[in-house]
Amino acid sequence: MHIDLRSDTVTRPSKEMLAAMMTAKTGDDVYKEDPTVNELESRVAKMFGMDTALFFPSGSMANQAAIKLHTQPGEQLICDKWAHVYNYEGGGVSFNSGVSCKLVDGDRGMITAAQVEEAINPPDFYHSPLTTLVCLENTTNKGGGACYDFAEIEKIRKVCTANNLGLHLDGARLFNALVAKNEDAKDYGKVFDTISICFSKGLGIPLGTVLVGNNDIMQKAIRVRKVLGGGMRQVGIIAAAGLYALDTNVNRLAEDHRKASEIAETLQKQTYVKEVEPTETNIVIFYLTDAVSEEKFMDDLLQKNIKISNMGQGKLRIVTHLDYTDPMHELFLKTLNTYK
Ligand SMILES: *Cc1c(COP(=O)(O)O)cnc(C)c1O
């Protein structure tokens, strides 16, 4: 048995998902003639109560397109110091949009309305870059799958409106937050200008992210996607997997969350573990004591065909997902309990 807990992106399409893909109606999506892509986009837009949605090949591209839509070169966006858009998109913020990031020292990847307010450069002070966008992440990746308090997001919305700032959500794992906190997608549609939602994470499709927003801002999205090289042709075969995942793989995220919290509880009891971060969704971040190095621990797990991630600074990460089965879970908990 191979147990891969490095990321929820390692899932493979199930037989049923593949069957849905095999029978998909397709067309050329660059001409907007792929009925399955169009269906996925309109379904997501409706779900969030927003005007329009656009299917992208990756979450990074959807975020980068959103940043381009909200900004002009030389401007500045505000995000947490751990934000994916800043740390893991290859410097795309500056490469694609010529924009800089004002980093906020948040809590597990989450920032507050007060911190946003403080990070805004005065618009008439022409020496500093003009602040035009705030990017939030929910759930947070480097922050261990933490979920925002929705009331704080509403406060941030108010600050953005008062200061003429766009508000983008990197919702790569937004469905995990919706399920964990029993929240409604429509509430998110009301407060954010744009939201990216990955289908290649917890929802288990091979690739793809939907960017959703209202017409005013999304008008140019298709052009930006084309510029970034993200126009795809008969991509309905992938969108069909997305539709299948919306029906089948959303509510079951609760199971991933349960398994993650059981892993966290088990780790907490081990003498070789120094600390486990609070676990709200499908990501567990923990630290080892000086008794064992991260390298040795990961190597010992690898000998048992178990893979986890090292995020640096002593952080080890485990991510539960669709392909992490009950027998794997049992074996993994046993391995943690008996590790020496
Ligand atoms: C995975 C992820 C993305 C998208 O990354 P890709 O590698 O482009 O799929 C964006 N934001 C967050 C928080 C993520 O975890």
Automatic annotation (TrEMBL):
GO CC annotations, alphabetized: cytosol
Example of a GO biological process term: glycine biosynthetic process
Keywords: Lyase, Pyridoxal phosphate
The organism's place on the tree of life at top rank: Bacteria
Residues of the Aromatic amino acid beta-eliminating lyase/threonine aldolase domain: 4-289
Gene3D superfamilies in UniProt: Aspartate Aminotransferase, domain 1, Type I PLP-dependent aspartate aminotransferase-like (Major domain)
GO molecular function: L-allo-threonine aldolase activity
Cofactor(s) needed: pyridoxal 5'-phosphate
In-chain residues carrying the UniProt-annotated modification N6-(pyridoxal phosphate)lysine: 201
UniProt record similarity statement: Belongs to the threonine aldolase family.
The name this protein goes by in its record: L-threonine aldolase
